[in-house]
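Hypothesis: this fold can be encoded by more than one sequence.
Test: take the structure tokens below, design a sequence, compare later.
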């Protein structure tokens, strides 16, 4: 399975709060934020791990060396895509990995600022009765993405619009990588954005309208670590 990790943002909220390290390198409770996120995933299913980072983060901060020091010992390929500039959103960032994704294998996308625990995720990823899995947790805070489901299948997704209490963790899985790549490329080519960003969650609506079926995997525990305030809350427990 292809695991793609987009991490090509500037981390401006942490920089503004006085953090000197880039977000992926910030340590808390003995691990970096990147490790807390990657270690949440069922890495035994991964055969092709792709990180997408900014070129300046490698030249100035050694992101490739840092990741290799943590994960090079694992039994799968690690590939790096280094971008010259920030994209218009996560979907466009992951599109940059198109040539590196093995099209005959499944695709899983995740971020670098979310720690979670799910005992059901691996089995759902392996289940053949759907076209992909979307990670979820219970929340109605408008800052998240959301999914609505009926009879066990997702019927609608939305970005920062509360259509249900199924908030999304940022884990996006596609049985067929071309489902994601085609939907993302269509939105990019036609400038279909949400608040001028190319998010992944709304793309599921395009695929659902074409008959694809997706299921939610509701995590047991989650810690979102994307802002200084969230990090401080995590460290206080």
């Amino acid at each position: 399975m292809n695991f793609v990790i987009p991490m090509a943002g500037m981390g401006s909220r942490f920089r503004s709060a006085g953090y000197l390290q880039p977000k992926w390198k910030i340590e808390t409770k003995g691990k970096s934020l990147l490790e807390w996120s990657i270690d949440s995933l069922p890495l035994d299913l991964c055969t092709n791990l792709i990180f997408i980072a900014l070129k300046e983060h490698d030249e100035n901060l050694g992101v490739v060396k840092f990741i290799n020091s943590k994960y090079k010992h694992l039994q799968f390929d690690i590939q790096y895509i280094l971008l010259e500039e920030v994209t218009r959103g996560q979907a466009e960032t992951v599109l940059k990995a198109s040539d590196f994704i093995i099209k005959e294998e499944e695709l899983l996308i995740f971020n670098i600022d979310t720690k979670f625990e799910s005992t059901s995720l691996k089995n759902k990823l392996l289940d053949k009765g759907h076209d992909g899995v979307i990670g979820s947790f219970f929340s109605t805070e408008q800052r998240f993405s959301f999914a609505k489901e009926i009879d066990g299948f997702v019927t609608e997704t939305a970005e920062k619009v509360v259509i249900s209490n199924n908030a999304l963790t940022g884990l996006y899985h596609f049985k067929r990588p071309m489902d994601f790549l085609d939907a993302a490329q269509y939105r990019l080519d036609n400038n279909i954005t949400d608040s001028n960003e190319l998010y992944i969650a709304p793309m599921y609506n395009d695929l659902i309208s074409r008959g694809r079926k997706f299921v939610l995997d509701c995590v047991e525990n989650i810690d979102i670590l994307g802002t200084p305030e969230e990090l401080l809350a995590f460290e206080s427990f």
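Residues 2-235 form a domain with the Spore Coat Polysaccharide Biosynthesis Protein SpsA; Chain A fold (CATH 3.90.550.10). The first strand starts at residue 2 and ends at 7.
Hypothesis status: open.
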